[in-house]
Amino acid sequence: MPQPITVVDAFTQEPFCGNAAAVCILKAPKEDAWMQRVAREMNLAETAFLGTRADGWSLRWFTPETEVDLCGHATLATAHVLYEEGRLSPEDQTRFHTRSGLITAWRRFGWIEMDFPATPAVPVEAPRDLAASLGARPVFVGQTIYDYLVELEDEDTVRGLRPNISALAGFGGRGVIVTAAAAKNPQNPMAYDFVSRFFAPGVGIAEDPVTGSAHCALGPYWASKLGKGDLLGYQCSARGGYVRVRPEGDRAILGGHAITVLRGELTDT
């Protein structure tokens, strides 16, 4: 029996921007190897697999190479599909059971918000050759449970970065988040507070277009630096996308928009 699958661009309101994720609401349980093959076939940063539970949904995320513990954009894409297909009413909150614990999602003022674990960065000494691998001088270096977090001098430096991806892979973990405060630009219609990019060779992704889970570290970092509780980040990859983030204790509330760009069926199921 064919298995429906949907491709959604997350953290954007424009098609072919933001970060694309495939969402597969499973009709029946599937083996891990099958899910990994589907993720490899889709060849997107993440493919989400959703199964029903009495108290919500089970949710797993796969890159083309491996299963991951936490993924923001594919969670946003999944919630978007559930709302769009009428599996959730607009006022419903949904519960996702994941390898990183319970994640809830709901609609608020036209955005989909998600309750994620915060992953604040602890200051560390910069690894040897980090500056050379990035091609830029760090202002701050911290480490989360997944990634390095590196603040650079300014927004232009982040936007113009051309790092050595193979060298970054040698630092271990999932990857390297780079960030800077937003430039004072009156032409910025969204008034974002900071910019970022994310390089994740540890999970087979040279540069991720928009990364919700990275904002679980970026939110606490910039909230402390800027003295703000509600922030807007712009991930300035080639596709680009906006992430709202509101740190709340040991949680980070992420918000975004999403748009469906493709619906299809897997025939070999």
Summed up:
By secondary structure, this protein is α+β, with helices and mostly antiparallel strands. It is built from six helices and 18 strands.
Helix/strand layout:
Layout: E1 3-10, E2 19-25, H1 32-42, E3 46-53, E4 56-62, E5 67-68, H2 72-84, E6 94-98, E7 101-108, E8 111-117, E9 122-123, H3 130-134, E10 140-143, E11 147-151, H4 155-160, H5 165-169, E12 175-181, E13 194-200, E14 205-208, H6 215-226, E15 231-235, E16 241-248, E17 251-256, E18 258-266
Parallel strand pairs: 2-3, 4-6, 11-12, 13-15
Antiparallel strand pairs: 1-2, 1-18, 3-4, 4-5, 6-7, 7-8, 8-17, 9-10, 10-11, 12-13, 13-14, 15-16, 16-17
Structural class: alpha+beta
Proportion of beta-strand residues: 35-45%
CATH superfamily of the largest domain: Diaminopimelate Epimerase, Chain A, domain 1
Number of domains: 2
The backbone outline, from C-alpha atoms, is: globular
* Mean pLDDT level: 94
CATH hierarchy class name of the largest domain: Alpha Beta
CATH topology of the largest domain: Diaminopimelate Epimerase, Chain A, domain 1
Beta-strand segment tally: 18
Query: Which CATH-level-2 architecture of the largest domain?
Result: Roll
Distance from N terminus to C terminus (CA atoms, Å) equals 7 Å
- Which runs of at least 5 residues are low in confidence (pLDDT < 50)? none
- What is the overall number of helices? 6
- Major sheet description: 18 strands, mixed
> Could you state the order of secondary-structure elements as H and E?
EEHEEEHEEEEHEEHHEEEHEEEE
Helical content (DSSP H or I, runs of 4+): 10-25%
Rg measurement, Å? 18 Å
